[in-house]
Design a protein that fits this description.
heterodimer, A: about 250 residues, alpha/beta, 6 helices, 13 strands, about 25% helix, about 30% strand, B: about 325 residues, Rossmann fold, seven-stranded parallel β-sheet, five-stranded parallel β-sheet, 9 helices, 16 strands, globular, electron transfer activity (chain B), flavin adenine dinucleotide binding (chain B)
């Protein structure tokens, strides 16, 4: 079975977010980039399923410029077999989805996995766009994925519960916890990753359908109002009379 | 040109987030000088749908096909696309929910529309293109996004828009059929499992949330969280390590890798306020922090705080709420 796992390159979760002086772009200076945490669930689960099947391949795919390659190598070190980088800045979800769909089609992948959303753009869009472009089912967000032959059984989160869904390959799933315990690379993985194939291809399709005009930080908080522990009950009065939330 | 609003229903009731979405859609319609039609998905009653008039909706399309009770991506997408065609909708508004994300992203390709999710404000209309504010960087920033397409789909974040209530106004409910076939239900769920909701309040929809962290010491102490939540009519939540060690179920874990919530009131008990936790809660309107460590980072993000022991403070708070009611 051929797995395609889409990963994005995002600022480390602890990054303090700042922008260029014109607020048009995220300020990358001094920021460490990591594999999007949600994508790690997709990657690890694909590797686990491949191992359980005893055959098949896991290909990682990233739409990004050359500076994303350290994280592509990291995905190879975790256990993917090969990688493809589409040489373009990921301008919006639709642009990225077109690249993924084109590669998925050409490579005839059976299972296309990705994280629920990227922790920078927070779009939660690419999965459905890829599915619609390819005319195949999408399951989003998926908390569990098991395969039996060409049939996948997934748990899909719904507000207040879950749906158990069965789909046949090919399909797309966007993954979230608690799907698996994400793996970290070991020494052997890091060594072998260097020699695994990483193919660079040029983008296809139409341009983006949305554009960010400007970024902004949330307004600063006023500062905390402390209530002495002995008179904790006063907090409730403040929440009613001052904050008006109860 | 018209505006189509996707309304999610559950057990006959319109979800709270969908009342917000309906209000958002009717305000966009007003801005464009047109009317807003809703299409209902899930299990609805005619009486509840008619009440969407209070949110400014003039007409509601409803397909009573029983298999639409539970979410089915293929069928929902086709149904909403058919409603959009029928109404000639240029703008589609839905909730930034798991249903909204699943359907909205497919619809955007099918209808060749520009899509913005996580939207927190009404759009500005610049001669046909929309600029909307959306949450980005896991709640640490906002982005103004320009949608240039002739058609636009907006997924509105919960609790970011006040639901309108114009008492007495009703919407006309119209039977609608998208002529769905068996093939459209190929990805229908085999089973739907609902979780036990403490106090019956659904965390993603909750107006108030009481949340516990590792400072609660163990699951045997969670009654303190539950008692306060019950008194407040709040949902309960937890930090990641708490669900990792199974003190609480995974669906209660909020944060960067858990659920994002934006209630009016978030009360954090024995939670340090790590950046990954804040990412899921920092768009709450009012944040209350109870922590015995005055240096806990959460106090920086809080509106109200008590430096104290949760085991002493929580019973006092519950008592004070009971006295208020
Ligand atoms: C990639 C990544 C993603 C993550 N995603 C998430 C996420 O989604 N959600 C999340 O929550 N975390 C997440 N984390 C973990 C996060 O970094 C923190 O470890 C976690 O939030 C800490 O949880 P806590 O505050 O409950 O526990 P602790 O950090 O152990 O803090 C416990 C707090 O309780 C206080 N306390 C102890 N006893 C008492 C008492 N008797 N009375 C009052 N206060 C008391 C202490 O002073 C302390 O501040 C993530 C981490 C990583 C690396």
């Amino acid at each position: 079975m051929k797995f395609l796992v889409c990963i994005s390159n995002v600022p480390d979760t602890t990054t303090k977010i700042t922008f260029t002086p014109d607020n048009k772009e995220f300020n990358k200076a001094g920021v460490q980039f990591v594999i999007n945490p949600w994508d790690e669930y997709a990657l690890t689960r694909a590797i686990e399923l491949k191992e359980a099947q005893g055959s098949g391949t896991v290909t990682v795919l990233n739409v990004g410029e050359a500076d994303t390659e350290p994280n592509i190598r990291k995905a190879l070190a975790i256990g993917a077999d090969d990688a493809i980088r589409v040489n373009a800045a990921p301008t919006d979800a639709y642009f990225v989805a077109q690249q993924i769909a084109a590669i998925a089609k050409e490579g005839a992948y059976d299972v296309i996995l990705m994280g629920k959303e990227s922790i920078d753009y927070n779009g939660f869009q690419v999965h459905g766009m890829v599915g619609e472009l390819l005319g195949i089912p999408t399951v989003a967000p998926a908390m569990k994925l098991d395969m039996s032959g060409n049939t996948a059984t997934l748990e899909r989160e719904i507000e207040g519960g879950k749906e158990i869904v069965e789909v046949n390959t090919p399909f797309v799933a966007s993954c979230q916890q608690p799907m698996c315990e994400p793996r970290i690379p070991n020494m052997r993985g890091i060594m072998t990753a260097r020699t695994k194939p990483l193919k660079v291809v040029e983008p296809v399709g139409e341009g983006a359908r949305t554009a960010v005009a400007e970024y902004a930080l949330p307004p600063k908080k006023q500062g905390v109002k402390l209530i002495p522990a002995e008179s904790a009950g006063d907090l409730i009065k403040l929440l009613r009379n001052e904050a008006k939330v109860i | 040109m018209s505006v189509l609003v996707v309304v999610e229903c559950d057990g006959g009731e319109v979800k709270k987030s969908s009342l917000e979405v309906a209000s958002y859609g009717s305000q966009v319609a007003q801005m464009l000088g047109t009317t807003a039609t809703a299409v209902a998905v899930g299990e609805a009653t005619e009486a509840n749908l008619a009440q969407l008039g209070e949110q400014g909706i003039s007409k509601v399309l409803y397909d009573a096909e029983p298999r639409l009770k539970d979410f089915v991506n293929g069928a929902y997408t086709k149904l909403i696309a058919a409603a959009a065609e029928k109404e000639g909708a240029q703008v589609i508004v839905l909730a930034n929910s798991n249903i909204g994300a699943a359907v909205g992203s497919r619809l955007s390709v099918r209808l060749k529309a520009s899509l913005a999710t996580n939207v927190v404000e009404l759009p500005k209309n610049d001669g046909g293109s929309f600029t909307v504010k959306r949450g980005a960087f896991s709640g640490k920033a906002f982005a103004d996004v320009v949608l240039t397409g002739d058609r636009k789909i907006l997924a509105v974040k919960k609790n970011s828009i006040e639901a309108l209530h114009e008492a007495g106004k009703t919407a006309q409910v119209e039977a609608f059929s998208a002529s769905l076939s068996d093939a459209d239900f190929a990805d229908a769920p085999k089973q739907v499992v609902m979780q036990d909701q403490a106090g019956g309040v659904l965390l993603p929809e909750a107006d108030r949330v009481v949340s516990g962290g590792r400072g609660m010491k163990g699951p045997e102490n969670w009654h303190l969280i539950e008692d306060l939540a019950k008194a407040l009519g709040a949902a309960t939540a937890c930090s990641k390590p708490v669900s990792d060690v199974d003190w609480r179920p995974h669906h209660e874990h909020v944060g960067q890798t858990g659920i994002t919530v934006s209630p009016n009131l978030y009360i954090a008990c024995g939670i340090s306020g790590a950046i990954q936790h804040l990412a899921g809660v920092n768009s709450s309107k009012v944040i209350v922090v109870i922590n015995k460590d005055p240096e806990a980072p959460f106090f920086k993000a809080a509106d109200y705080g008590i430096v104290g022991d949760v085991f002493e403070v929580l019973p006092k708070l519950t008592q004070a709420v009971k006295e208020l009611n």
